[in-house]
């Protein structure tokens, strides 16, 4: 990502743009994210989910029958958010981009290992050429979102910073 550009219209005059490295770390360390997809009739669908920030992209998985999967079949445009619910502390981040399905064991295996490192045995996946697998017969598809734009909302002082590739 490039250096962030602070938007003075929505920022305290004392605010400075956080480094991309700090935003990258926040995305990497987050435990919970919110994914926004769009239904075929145009209504938004928002859901919390776990995921990993890997090689500058957000990775998540979904079951083939889940609403987010159905929405992605209609439109791959998504927003991913993470942050805190506090008003005066922390940083909220929005990643806008296009979700692309990941296939191939050689690409999926490192992502399964990243889930295990981050979340432990609660999210222990194996991988085959189509997606993640587990002992229960679950076979979620895996997607990555390469950011088209990332927006960081600082809270002390309040600021809005935009990063673009």
UniProtKB/TrEMBL annotation:
Transmembrane segments: none annotated. InterPro entries: F420H2_bilvrd_red/Heme_oxyg, Pyridox_Oxase_N, Split_barrel_FMN-bd. Coiled coil: none annotated. One of its GO terms (molecular function) is coenzyme F420 binding. It comes from the Bacteria. Residues 21-121 form the Pyridoxamine 5'-phosphate oxidase N-terminal domain. GO terms for cellular component: cytosol. The keyword Oxidoreductase applies. PANTHER family: HEME OXYGENASE HI_0854-RELATED (PTHR35176), PYRIDOXAMINE 5'-PHOSPHATE OXIDASE-RELATED FMN-BINDING (PTHR35176:SF4). This is Pyridoxamine 5'-phosphate oxidase family protein. It comes from Nocardioides pocheonensis.
């Amino acid at each position: 990502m490039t250096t962030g550009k602070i938007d003075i219209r929505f920022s305290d005059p004392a605010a400075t743009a956080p480094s991309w490295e700090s935003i990258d770390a926040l995305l990497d360390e987050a435990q919970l994210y919110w994914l926004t997809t769009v239904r075929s009739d145009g209504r938004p669908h928002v859901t919390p989910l776990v995921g990993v920030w890997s090689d500058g992209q957000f990775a998540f998985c979904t079951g083939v029958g889940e609403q987010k999967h159905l929405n992605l079949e209609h439109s791959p445009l998504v927003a991913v958010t993470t942050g805190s619910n506090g008003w005066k502390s922390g940083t909220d981040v929005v990643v806008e981009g296009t979700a692309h399905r990941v296939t191939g064991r050689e690409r999926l295996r490192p992502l399964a290992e990243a889930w295990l490192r981050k979340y432990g045995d609660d999210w222990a996946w194996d991988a085959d050429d189509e997606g993640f697998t587990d002992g229960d017969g679950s076979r979620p598809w895996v997607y990555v979102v390469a950011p088209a734009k990332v927006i960081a909302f600082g809270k002390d002082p309040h600021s809005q910073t935009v990063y673009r590739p």
